[in-house]
Please model this.
Amino acid sequence: MIKNRFQYLAPTSVEEAANLLAASPGDTEVIGGGTWVVVEMTAGDRDPRRVIDLKNAGLRYIREEKGAVVIGARATYTDVVRSAAAAKLPALVAMAAGVTGGGQLRNRATLGGSACYGNPSSDVPGLLVGLGATLTVRSAGGTRSIAAADFFTGPLRTALQTGELLESMTIPVPAGMKQGYYKFKLAESSWPICTGTALVGADGSATVTIGAANCRPVTVTGSASDLDGLARAAEAAITSPFSDTLADGEYRKQIAGAIAKRAVKAAV
Amino acid sequence: MSDTIHIELTINGAAKSADIDPRLLLVEAIRDTFGYKGTHIGCLTGDCGACTIELNGEIEKSCLVLAASADGGEIRTIEGIAPDDGGLHPVQQAFWDEYGFQCGYCLPGMLFAALDLIESNPTPDEAQIRHAISGNYCRCTGYNNIVTSIQTAAQRMAAAK
Model:
């Protein structure tokens, strides 16, 4: 059992959730699926006095809106895999289907939670940056939008301010471009070591975002017909390599070029 | 701050309710509040899968869920897998026949992962089986007999249809 007492709150709207958060933002945790926060509370690494569970807040949706796919903060990876709207984004679906932890994890964990956690060595930050997503965050004062490239500010750090919670992620459907997602990991149960999200235009122009290798996702542009050039650019872009127990940052940097190539080849 | 929260659940078809401490994890409620000890606590980090149950028709790791979050849910535990006649479910029988477990600690989670796979894919190949059990650790078998067990279960279930 979690060590210290807290109050459990399950607001029935995102506005109510934001107001509850505003009442005492410094000692409140917000949970979507809870797969990070609950574990860290069990381990004693987080010690909130109040927990806001978004399960009833109406944020479990995936819908198409004006040429974009909008994903509510409480949508799970499995929701993405099964969603007709998300099928417009094959790179997103490939990412969601391959998230480590088994079907049990994908049935509970949310893209929104992973975004808020901001672990460099995970799928979601690189994917959201790679597809040019915008994150909508809410506080008691209203909402604001943050480009994914600005949202992930460093390892386990995001642009989310105290008193703000994630409401949704909006991913534009890249018209006329092929999308690819490639993940490299060293074991079936491993976190990603390096990921690539590729957008390839009809003219062969390619944009690749490398995730999990750098403290923040990095994006490079080039040509699908010059994969070696793209690979060199990807490796050079890794200026703050991310290390954890699974892989050293220098190793991640060395493979970033190969992963960029594979992401372009995965684009269909 | 209220000390307890009232939850109502269905476990293996039986209505259950309790006033629980919000700090209680779902796996702790299932085992200690409601007495279904077949659901195991392994890592408490969401890695090992020993606490896998079915919640509202989807398999989940019950150590990752606050019991309060599961209020109103329909749960199936390992005790709810076998038929009422005292026999084993075909997936359980296949694990028994193929030596798919040794100490048995991971078994409830492996069985739910196997059931979940076969339900959506009645003829899984080895790679699909290994992906399906990637959220479950076994420290005895080396996994080969588990893969064989799931293949056998799928074949028998397909043949019985």
